[in-house]
Amino acid sequence: MNENMNENMNSLELFAGCGGLSYGFNKEGFNLIGCNELDPSIASTYKHNYKNSNVIVGDITIPEIKNKIYKLFENIKCDIILGGPPCVAYSMAGFRNSRDPRGQLFKDFVEIVEKLNPKVFVMENVKGILSMMHDKPKLNKEEQKIANKYYKLEEKKLKYVSEKKVEKDENKIKDLNKKINKIKKDIKKMNDDLPKFRMKVTELIKNSFFELGYNVNMKLLNAANFGVPQKRERVIFIGIRNDIDKEITYPEETHNEKGDKNKKKWVSVKESIKDLEDLKEDVEFNQIYTKHKPDIINKIKNTNIGESLNKKYKEAYFKCYPDKPSNTVKENHGGVFLHYKKNRVMTPRELARLQSFPDDFIFKGSKSNILIQIGNAVPCKLSESLAKEIKKIFS
Length: 395
What we know:
This protein is an alpha/beta fold. It has 3 domains: about 10-135 and about 200-255 and about 380-395, Vaccinia Virus protein VP39 (Rossmann fold); about 135-195; about 270-375, DNA Methylase, Chain A, domain 2, CATH 3.90.120. The chain has helices spanning about 20-25, 40-50, 65-70, 105-115, 140-165, 170-190, 195, 200-210, 270-275, 295-300, 350-355, 365-375, 380-395; strands at about 10-15, 30-35, 55, 80-85, 120-125, 135, 200, 215-220, 235-240, 255, 265. The protein has a 7-stranded mixed β-sheet with strand order 3-2-1-4-5-9-8, sandwiched between helices. A two-stranded antiparallel sheet has the order 6-7. The protein has a two-stranded parallel sheet with strand order 10-11. The protein is globular, with a radius of gyration of 22 Å. The protein starts with 9 loop residues before the first strand and ends with a helix.
C-alpha cells in the first residue's frame, strides 16, 4: 500500500506536557486534533499555545479518559500519534526502580495506537531507556520465583536509600550504608539470573508494536546537532504501519561541535540568551527572576564556570559555559542553571530559549510549575526536524 500525504495529517499527542513535541508538527502543518495531559496547570500552557486543539486533561490509564480520546476520532482518521511516556523509571539520574508503574505507561501508548491504528507514531524517551530492563511478558513459575527474589532485594534497597535521605543520626546512617552495600552485593550476585526473567525495555516496546503490525526503528538523537543550544540526548522511536510501503528514516543532523563536514557549529548558550541578561522582570513573558539571599549571591560569584554552586551536585546550580550548548535542561526542584555572567539562576524564559522555544510561546502557571514544564519538554527545533522528516517520508 502506497500512501501519499495529499493533505495534512491529523495528529494526537499523548503525555503532551506543555507541547514541545507538538510544536514542530504544528509548525509543519500537521492538524493537532487533540492531546492528553495529566496535570491541569501544565495543560493550561498547551491550551494557551494551541488554541484549536482539544485538550483532554486526566489520567490516561482511566478508561473514561481513553474514551474521550477515541471520541475525537469518531469521524476523522488519526494519522499520527506523538508522545513521550513519563520517563521517571528510565532516567539515568537517581535510583531506577524497574517495576515503577510510571515506567509501564508505554503500554497505554501501545493500547491507543492499537485502537486508533495511525499510519505512523513518534515516541520519545530519555537515553536511560537504552539500558533499562523489564520483566518478560510471560514468566514460568521458576522464572517468577527468581524475579520475586530479585525485586524483594530492590525494594529493600529503595527502602534503606529513602530512610538514609531523611536520617540525621550519623551512626544510623553508617548502619544504613552497611545494609545498602550488602544488598548491592546480593543484587550483583543475581546478575547472571537477570536474562531468565528480564529483557531490554527497548525490545519490549518494539515487540509490542511489531505485534500490532508496525515496522519500528529507534535512534539516539542529540538536540545540539539540530540547532538547539543544549546537549540533550533522546531516544526516538518511529513506527510505520507495515501495510504502508514507506521506509523509516531520521532527520539529517544540521550542526556539530566544530562546525565542520558541511555542518553549522553548535549554538552556544551565550548566542541564545545574551539579549535577555539585562531585561527587566516580565512575568507575562516568563522572564521571572529569583530573589537570592546575599550569601547565595556571594557563593554564585565564587562559583567557576563549569562547576556547581553546591559541590554535592553536578547538575543543579551548574554555571554554564557561555561558548557551548548547555547540559540537559532539567527542572531540578528550582536548582536550575546559574547564568554564566549574572549572579543569579537563569529565568524560565532563558531556559525556554535553551529548549529552543520561541518567545511567543508563553508558559502558564507558577514559576516552579513552569520550570517543570520546560525541563520535561522536547526541544522545539528537534521536534521541527522530526516533523519535516515525517512529511518527507509521506510525501
